[in-house]
Structures are given as C-alpha cells and as structure tokens.
Fold:
Amino acid sequence: MSCATVTRFYEEFEGWKSDISSAKEYAQLPEAARAYLQKLEELSGCPIVLISVGPRRDQTIQLSSPFA
Structure:
C-alpha cells in the first residue's frame, strides 16, 4: 500500500457582505464570489455546474447540466 503525498497551502480571498440569496444568474454574484468559484474550479480540475445561494430549491444557479 502506498500513501499519496499531500502539499498544503493557504490562500486568502476577498470576501463579500452582500446578500446573494436572491441571485438567479452567475453574473448576479459579487465579483469576489465569482473569483472564489473560479479558483475552486481551477484547483479541483472540475467544472462547477450548480451553485446554491440558499436553502430552497429555487435558490440554485445552474451553470450547466449536472448530467451531461
């Protein structure tokens, strides 16, 4: 059995204080939120297809089909 080597790093991002719960489109998110999501995609190597901005079903932004 072999163990993977993990390298930790810490990166800070600008935050946002605006309420995003009414956002219906990606473009309605604050620039700082979009930058954070782009970095998550870059680091994970996976595209983000759904963004939850609240607990209700209608508070989900769908960027592409999760089943494609």
